[in-house]
Design brief:
Layout: H1 7-17, H2 28-36, H3 50-79, H4 81-84
Helix pairs in contact: 1-3
Length: 87
């Protein structure tokens, strides 16, 4: 079960659940709601604060960037296999 301090795992789940969302432009009220609605989340909704939400947002941004990089590498490996090894 996820708690507020599980920022990376929460970010991964948010990235999977909302692939079309750019976490850089979300409101903390929306972020809070989405976290509380995650199936694995089991913590008190009022136990969060701005610092916690910001940490989750930063982890989500990082996870999204990693996802984009991996996707680009996969695409490059199909188009030009030797290009990935030079990255």
């Amino acid at each position: 079960m996820l708690k507020w301090n599980d920022s990376l795992e929460i970010a991964i789940q948010l990235c999977d659940k909302f692939p079309e969302i750019d976490p850089q432009y979300i409101r903390f009220t929306d972020l809070h709601q989405w976290i509380c609605e995650l199936d694995d989340f089991n913590d008190k909704p009022d136990s969060s604060n701005e610092k916690i939400l910001e940490a989750i947002q930063m982890a989500w941004i990082e996870e999204k960037n990693n996802y984009r990089r991996r996707k680009m590498e996969r695409t490059l490996s199909i188009i030009k296999p030797d290009a990935v090894s030079k990255m």
